[in-house]
């Protein structure tokens, strides 16, 4: 289905270095990038251009645009989001949405990877001691930094800082007219090795989904569409909130398959039972 086809990677931040090797190995595609493609038009992490759509729609717009520009019917895009973890609210998190779109076969394959492995951070600083402390905590200089007059300032933004002397000079210049300066991590993929690792994990999992084929028609992407709770407690046998089964569905023919006890156990510990341990 994919062997020998051209696949455009919708990026301007060198994500092809992460994606292309695995895509070519697992799918047999020929990856390329259009140097004229500008993903910043769909939103920037530093806020000069606001992202108007949610990550799913933004990724779809990116890949469609790149495919249109290159007259290619196969493409992939990713969209990162940073902020507080949706459950563990005090932890920063990186959510990477990876979308492979096959226009020829009218198929879309998506994976979302949520990770707390991120250096995402921003703060107001007013001294060189503050600057050094922040830089150390966010893994500078292996991870780039951004400086600006204030958090909401969309002018005089200095990005991609990887050199300590340049960082100090930029800080001193901004401090001449401001009591404090806003410093933040540069979350663009080419400047953030930690984010690159999360994207790498995402593409590995996306490949696993694509390689999972329908038992009826052999179409790729036979993946989970629903998780059913109700694994019985091994003490009172009441249904718990733990997963009892997973429902798989084919994107092509609609075939459905239910996998019971996906976590390898047929009963749950009473610790997780609302009756035994309310």
Give structural notes.
This protein has five helices and twelve strands. The protein has a five-stranded mixed sheet, with helices on both faces. Helix 1 links the parallel strand 1 and strand 2. The chain is flat and about 65 Å long. The termini are far apart. The model has no long low-confidence stretch (mean pLDDT 94).
Q: Record the strand order, biggest sheet.
A: 2-1-3-4-5
Number of strands: 12
**What portion of residues belong to β-strands?**
25-35%
Structure classification = alpha+beta
Q: Which helices and strands appear, and what pairs or packs with what?
A:
Blueprint: E1 6-9, H1 16-27, E2 30-32, H2 55-70, E3 74-84, E4 92-102, E5 107-115, E6 122-125, H3 128-137, E7 145-148, E8 158-161, H4 164-175, E9 181-185, H5 193-211, E10 223-229, E11 243-249, E12 256-260
Parallel strand pairs: 1-2, 1-3
Antiparallel strand pairs: 3-4, 4-5, 6-9, 7-8, 7-9, 10-11, 11-12
Helix pairs in contact: 1-5
At a glance:
Helices cover 25% and strands 27% of the residues. With 278 residues, it is α+β, with helices and mostly antiparallel strands.
Top keywords for this entry?
278 residues; alpha+beta; 5 helices; single chain; five-stranded mixed sheet; four-stranded antiparallel sheet
């Amino acid at each position: 289905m994919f062997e020998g086809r051209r696949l455009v990677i919708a990026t301007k931040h060198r994500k092809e270095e992460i994606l292309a090797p695995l895509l070519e190995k697992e799918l047999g595609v020929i990856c390329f990038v259009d140097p004229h493609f500008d993903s910043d038009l769909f939103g920037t992490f530093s806020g000069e251009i606001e992202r108007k759509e949610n990550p799913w729609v933004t990724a779809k717009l990116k890949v469609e645009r790149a495919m249109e520009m290159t007259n290619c019917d196969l493409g992939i895009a990713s969209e990162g989001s940073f902020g507080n973890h949706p459950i563990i609210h005090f932890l920063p998190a990186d959510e990477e949405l990876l979308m492979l779109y096959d226009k020829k076969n009218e198929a879309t394959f998506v994976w979302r990877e949520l990770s707390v492995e991120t250096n995402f951070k921003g703060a107001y600083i007013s001294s060189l001691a503050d600057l050094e402390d922040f830089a150390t905590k966010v893994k500078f200089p292996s991870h780039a930094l951004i400086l600006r007059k204030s958090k909401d300032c969309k002018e005089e933004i200095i990005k991609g800082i990887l050199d300590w002397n340049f960082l100090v000079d930029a800080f001193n210049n901004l401090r001449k007219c401001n009591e404090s300066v806003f410093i933040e991590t540069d979350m663009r993929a080419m400047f953030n090795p930690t984010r690159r690792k999360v994207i790498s994990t995402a593409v590995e999992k996306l490949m696993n989904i694509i390689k999972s084929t329908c038992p009826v028609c052999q179409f790729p992407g036979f993946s989970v569409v629903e998780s059913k709770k109700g694994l019985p407690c091994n003490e009172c046998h009441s249904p718990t909130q733990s997963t009892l089964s997973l429902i798989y569905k084919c994107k092509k023919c609609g075939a459905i398959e239910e996998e019971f006890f996906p976590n390898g156990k047929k009963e749950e510990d009473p610790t997780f039972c609302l009756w035994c341990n309310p």
